[in-house]
Amino acid sequence: MSYNWCFHSFDYDKFERALIESRQVIVDAVINEINQFGDYSPDEISQHERIGQRILAQGIVYDGLDRADTKIMDRFAFDAFHSLHAEIAFTPESSEFLSPYVTADLPSHLVKKHFFSRARPIPESEREYFYLPFFTHLGRRLGQNVPSDCEYVALNPSEVDSIEKELEYFLATEEGRALDATNNENLSRDFLGPVRSALSKGRALHAQVS
Known about the structure:
- This protein is an alpha+beta fold.
- The protein contains ten helices and six strands, in the order βααααβαββαβααααβ.
- β3 and β4 form a beta hairpin.
């Protein structure tokens, strides 16, 4: 089974409204799905229902959640784009898939001072890249601005413009050219291509690993 990034564009204004007006649709889509399968324990179903009630009251907000509840919130956020697909004009932009093994070699937001030292975030004033690290580290949660392994990224139209610039800059470096060439121009074709397509339409961009 494949495990790759795929890209969609969507209407960001409609998505923001849907996160307020269509919370029940988001919650019902996940709860109905887990109830259809017999591999969830009563406790797991109860946990999903509890997070679903939180979403109905507050929206998709991660503040104050522990690790287990964060992963459940990820499930709702990940599925939201698909349950709202018609409402937000969710449109495929990937001609081919992009391997996370390729994006893992993109610039990180972390750096080690020494080989055996712990990796630490690069100070913002010293960063060349703000958006590529979301793909290096497998995602960014809604409402947050740090990389996380939630396996999805949603970029508003202005952020799509920013990541296009970062990708173009990286692909012009010796490191970027080498990484792209090693992977049959996968980055320029299957990452920069969808980014430019969404940008040309003035739309937001969604990426997920699945």
